[in-house]
Amino acid sequence: MSSLDATRAELALLVLYLNKAEARDKICRAIQYGSKFVSNGEPGPAQNVDKTTSLARKVFRLLKFVNGLQSLISPTPPGTPLSLTLLGKSKDALIATFLFLDQFVWLGRTGIYQNKERVERIGRISLFCWLGSTVCTTLVEIGELERLSASIKKLEEELKNSNKYENELYRAKLKKSNDRTLSLVKAGIDTVVAVGLLQLAPTKVTPRVTGALGFISSLISCYQFVNGLQSLISPTPPGTPLSLTLLGKSKDALIATFLFLDQFVWLGRTGIYQNKERVERIGRISLFCWLGSTVCTTLVEIGELERLSASIKKLEEELKNSNKYENELYRAKLKKSNDRTLSLVKAGIDTVVAVGLLQLAPTKVTPRVTGALGFISSLISCYQLLPPPTKSKTL
Predict the structure, then answer these.
(1) End-to-end CA distance of the chain, in Å?
(2) So what's the pLDDT on residue 395?
(3) Where in this chain does the entry annotate a coiled-coil region (predicted)?
């Protein structure tokens, strides 16, 4: 494998990791609690980072309580003791309640909901729910580890005349035991973090202790998400015209530059980087990069649609004596054409949004127009992320 292939594989792993919304949330969590550790509850740039990152994370968790509800109604594995089942369901109910109430906290922090006293009360109730869920998780993991330990000992007895590490089942149980031990450690740490956030022991669990433990817990979460990812990246498909290849690579370079510069804008907005004039300049440069990337995307989609259209027409000629909609390849090309058309519409909308954010045409692309188009573009993105429909089985 060449160094370029190795770099591609490493970047693919990172992209796959960061594409998980949960992984991004845990990275933000590490930043949040790291800032809490640095600030020790004192006003300053570190505390600003703590507060802004905490608020940003609440957006990641919008409607996430549905995950908890799904776990709540899902059947437990056969053979699970009733005590562990009840603890597991209690954990799911508590975490779902925490995530549901946390949305009202977000509404209060953003100023949409004005009753500050009620927001604070809801915030404390939600944190108590999270505390309860971490305690339940701790007890569940202890119980499951005891069951696993007994199962491993029984298997060791059966394999005493052979190398147990060569047995696939033994290795699987050992890995499961290690994973549950790590989850137990994390649950224990999170319990102390919840105590710190609720200030139930302010002299012992100080903001600095809370920040340090929260940071460690976040790193454990980040590590847990690495497992199972495969490093795979696809080069440009063969047969792609050079013009489209160059436009695609230009788009990638521009969007990467935009995202890189946007981190400096965040540093400026949180007060870590103090030069406001430079932050504004970097912010405009980053937006121009995004504008350039949307233009490149538009041109790429137009070019790819032209290629697809020619390919579909050629296939229609071959299938003129049969029902083309029964042909799997034809349906696949038609779906691809529809997807690219939607991407073209989104890229066009994003171009106008970028023009609005840069105020290049302030009389025509007003803040309201920018907001409306940005909202439509976001809805298209949400639709594009929907999983494909499952094929119904015919009897």
Answers:
(1) 47
(2) 39
(3) 145-175, 305-335
